[in-house]
Amino acid sequence: MSIVIFSGTPRKHGRTRQVAKEVAEKLDGTLVDLSEGSLPMFNGEDAQGQNETVQWLRKIVEEAEAFVWVSPEYHNGMSGALKNALDYLGSNHFKGKPTLLLAVSGGGKGGINALNQMRTIGRGLYADVAAQQMIFDPDDFIGDGRLSRESEEKLQEVLSGFFPVQV
Ligand SMILES: Cc1cc2nc3c(=O)[nH]c(=O)nc-3n(C[C@H](O)[C@H](O)[C@H](O)COP(=O)(O)O)c2cc1C
């Protein structure tokens, strides 16, 4: 199964990127790393279709059979970078495709807003959004920015429930 993983942080050292990278490794999927900054702001102009990153994004998403969206919680919401990327895409890319939602927060019960907003947008794109979801707090990480063993096992459990053949 071909899986595309969206890393929604615009920050190169964002924890969201770390989670998304681990998910991409575990699932042998393709990572869309929005911290690379090569995706312009969507403006609806046809000329944007000539942009290499836009073309690449549309191609891999069209070919993908499933998705993982990983967003940071920013100001009680999902990241603007992820919403911008999704605005280049449509229900023709996502309709009926299994989609798992993960959020990364600053703690203090953050993350649920990003998850709920992604769920609403997934509905708008006719994605088959999983009921299961997961939030990563600062406590889920160890010194070098990697996931702690416990959190990694929890992630593994969620992924193997959702992608049983892949993990
Ligand atoms: C602009 C901005 C707004 C943030 N707002 C929230 C918030 O509302 N709630 C929260 O739990 N964490 C918030 N955080 C912390 C992030 O969720 C935290 O840094 C987490 O690691 C995910 O972001 P990252 O992938 O960019 O590191 C915010 C961080 C930034 C940069």
From TrEMBL:
<feature type="domain" description="NADPH-dependent FMN reductase-like">
    <location>
        <begin position="1"/>
        <end position="132"/>
    </location>
</feature>
<comment type="similarity">
    <text>Belongs to the azoreductase type 2 family.</text>
</comment>
<dbReference type="Pfam" id="PF03358">
    <property type="entry name" value="FMN_red"/>
</dbReference>
<dbReference type="GO" id="GO:0016491">
    <property type="term" value="F:oxidoreductase activity"/>
</dbReference>
<dbReference type="InterPro" id="IPR029039">
    <property type="entry name" value="Flavoprotein-like_sf"/>
</dbReference>
<dbReference type="InterPro" id="IPR050712">
    <property type="entry name" value="NAD(P)H-dep_reductase"/>
</dbReference>
<dbReference type="GO" id="GO:0005829">
    <property type="term" value="C:cytosol"/>
</dbReference>
<protein>
    <submittedName>
        <fullName>Azobenzene reductase</fullName>
    </submittedName>
</protein>
<dbReference type="InterPro" id="IPR005025">
    <property type="entry name" value="FMN_Rdtase-like_dom"/>
</dbReference>
<dbReference type="GO" id="GO:0010181">
    <property type="term" value="F:FMN binding"/>
</dbReference>
